[in-house]
Amino acid sequence: MQLTQHCDGRQNGYNGLVLLFASCSVLGCQSLHKAAKPSLFAHQVQREQIVLHSDFPLQTHDSLVEELCAQRERVASRLSLPLTDVPIHVYLFADDQSYYDFLDLRFPGFPPRRAIFVETDVQLAVYAHWGEHTAEDLRHEVTHGYLHAALPHLPLWLDEGIAEYFEVHHTHRGLNLPHLNHLINQIEFRPNLQRLEQLTNAADMTQQDYAESWAWVHFLLESDGAKTNLLTDYLAALQQDTTAPLSEHVHERFTAPDLALLEHLQSLK
Question: 42, 70, 106, 181: which has the fewest C-beta neighbours closer than 10 Å?
Answer without folding.
Answer: 42
